[in-house]
Amino acid sequence: MEIAVLTVDEYVHYLRGKGFQFEEDAIGFIYFGKHYTNAPDELINTAIELTLKAQKSFDGSFYVSLLETLVSNKIGTRTEAIKFVKEKEIMAI
């Protein structure tokens, strides 16, 4: 059974509902990374999630760097991304 992936807009809205505050520059970074890397929404959402876990708040440069790393290593899904950051010890999850 395939789980529906939230769009980036839906995911940001979901996180706001959970109490995460995104400044305008954070939203700008999110969409800049999306357009710059042409990554699928699932990977964008995962990069946002991992950024929040690693930084405890949204760090735009960390997010864009992480997203670029994932895309350049041909990572396409949340599962692959989490496995990749653990294996490469990019961050402790």
Q: What would you report as the Rg, rounded to the nearest angstrom?
A: 12 Å
Strand content: under 5%
The unreliable regions are none
Largest sheet features: none
Tell me how many strands there are.
0
Distance between the termini: 26 Å
Query: Oligomerization state of this entry?
Result: single chain
| SS element count, helices | 5
Overall 3D shape? globular
What is the helix fraction of residues, given as a range? 55-70%
SSE succession? HHHHH
- Please state the average pLDDT score: 92
Indicate the structural class. Answer: mainly alpha
Topology (elements, then pairings):
Blueprint: H1 8-17, H2 24-37, H3 41-55, H4 60-72, H5 78-87
Helix pairs in contact: 2-4, 3-4
